[in-house]
Write a structure and sequence with these properties.
Blueprint: H1 3-25, H2 30-52, H3 58-66, H4 72-97, H5 99-104
Helix pairs in contact: 1-2, 1-4, 3-4
Length: 115
């Protein structure tokens, strides 16, 4: 797997998680949070989609392999890059919003009432 493809997946996933967590930490409405995620995906797909296919999510990568549209070797290469990108995006959001704000929103966990 080429380093360019893995880097593209890492950067795209970073942007998705970073934008989403910052939207949540800034008390965005459900529409605002959805818009932040959608805009991040749209921008990253336009910028990096031709490099890696613009999956930016392990679930998407697995689904492509299960449906026969991507080989498992590619999926198993993309998943670590996506997980690293997500972790870096979460750390960057923590650095920007601060630990108190991130704790108040439950670090973006689903099912948590946002303050």
């Amino acid at each position: 797997m080429s380093p360019q493809k893995l880097t593209a997946e890492l950067i795209g996933t970073f942007a998705l998680v970073f934008a989403g967590l910052l939207a949540i930490s800034n008390n965005a409405t459900l529409l605002g949070v959805a818009f932040a995620h959608g805009l991040a995906i749209a921008v990253m797909a336009m910028a990096l989609g031709t490099v890696s296919g613009g999956q930016f999510n392990p679930a998407v990568s697995v689904a492509l392999s299960l449906s026969g549209h991507q080989d498992w070797r590619t999926t198993l290469s993309f998943i670590p890059a996506q997980l690293i990108g997500a972790a870096l995006g979460a750390l960057a959001a923590l650095g920007v919003a601060g630990p108190a704000r991130m704790q108040a929103i439950g670090y973006g966990k689903i099912g948590r009432a946002h303050v």
